[in-house]
């Protein structure tokens, strides 16, 4: 009987689509980064030319033509770890919400430049830990139903 339970469970998992897709990001994780080094890097790599970060004051270039894209703070959509990493290494995979296309894209490409040939994995981990510590995940607010009189 026992022997049957496991194959049955696997069949059920596969049938309901609960088994992770082989291309799923599940299981992906960078080594622990250092948020203090990350903040320094954020300014050294000039991410500050195009971004503000909630709760941090950076020297921002004056009269920049580039529309600032705000990072951190409360987001309506949950910013997952995977989304954060992907936004840095593959900016055009999806676009920040709440901006007009011309402010953030050129054609179908993000205006964010590629750092992939200059960032080390350690630097990427540090940047992600720094940014992660400035995102506040908004709590889910359930709908309020009032008594009907
Ligand atoms: C030349 C301007 C520019 C620079 C420099 C730049 N970015 Fe961006 N970045 C953008 C734009 C524009 C977007 C919005 C479009 C998109 O989502 O790709 C963006 C999006 C992002 C997002 C996703 C935001 C969201 O809410 O979806 C993250 C995270 C990010 N950048 C991190 C960085 C980091 C870290 C650096 C430095 C290593 C950096 N950026 C440098 C222009 C820039």
From TrEMBL:
Record Gene3D superfamilies: Cytochrome c-like domain (1.10.760.10)
Q: State one molecular function term (GO).
A: electron transfer activity
Which PROSITE patterns does the entry link to? CYTC, PROKAR_LIPOPROTEIN
According to the entry, every stretch annotated as the Cytochrome c domain falls at 33-135
Q: Name one Pfam family in it.
A: Cytochrom_C
Q: Which domain of life is it from?
A: Bacteria
Which key words tag this protein in UniProt? Heme, Iron, Metal-binding
Cited SUPFAM superfamilies: Cytochrome c (SSF46626)
- Kindly provide the name given to this protein in its UniProt entry: Cytochrome c domain-containing protein
Species name: Aureliella helgolandensis
């Amino acid at each position: 009987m026992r022997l049957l339970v496991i194959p049955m469970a696997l069949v059920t998992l596969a049938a309901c689509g609960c088994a992770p897709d082989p291309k799923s990001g599940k299981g992906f994780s960078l080594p622990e980064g250092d948020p203090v080094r990350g903040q320094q890097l954020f300014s050294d790599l000039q991410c500050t030319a195009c971004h503000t970060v909630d709760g941090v004051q950076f020297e921002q270039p004056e009269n920049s033509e580039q529309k600032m894209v705000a990072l951190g703070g409360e987001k309506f959509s949950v910013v997952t770890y995977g989304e954060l990493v992907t936004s840095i290494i593959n900016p055009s995979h999806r676009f920040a919400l709440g901006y007009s296309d011309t402010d953030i894209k050129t054609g179908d490409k993000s205006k964010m430049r590629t750092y992939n040939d200059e960032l080390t994995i350690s630097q990427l981990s540090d940047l992600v830990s720094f940014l992660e510590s400035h995102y506040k995940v908004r709590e889910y607010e359930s709908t309020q139903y009032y008594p009907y009189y």
